Amino acid sequence: MSPTAEPVNPEDPFLWLEEIDGERALAWVSEQNERSLAHLQADARYATDYQAALSILEDRSRIPYGALRGGHLYNFWQDDRHVRGLWRRTPLASYETPTPEWQTLLDVDALAAAEGRNWVYQGVDCEPDEGPRCLISLSDGGQDAKVVREFDQTTRCFVADGFSLPEAKSDVAWQDADTLLVATRFGADSLTESGYPYIIREWRRGQSLAEAREIYRGEPADVLVSPGRIDGDGGEALLLIVRVRTFFTSDYLRVAPRALGSSIEPMTLPPKVALQGISQGELLFLIRQDWQIAGQSFKSGSLLSMPLASVTAAEPAIRTLLVPASRDAIEQVAVTGSGVLVALYSNVKGRLLRLRFAGAAWTSTDLPLPANGSIGIVSAQERSDTAFVTYQDFLQPATLYRIGVRSGQAQPIKSLAPKFAADGCSVEQLQATSRDGTRVPYFVVRPRGFVATGTAPTLLYGYGGFDVSMLPGYLGTVGKLWLEKGGVYVLANIRGGGEFGPAWHEAGLKTRRQVVYDDFIAVAEDLVAQGITAPRHLGIEGGSNGGLLMGVMLTQRPELFRAVVVQVPLLDMLRFDKLLAGASWVDEYGSPQNPEERAWLEKMSPYQNLRRRPDFPQIFILTSTKDDRVHPGHARKYAARLDSLQMPFLYYENTAGGHSAAADLRERARRLALEFVYLAQRLID
Question: Model-level pTM?
Answer without folding.
Answer: 0.93
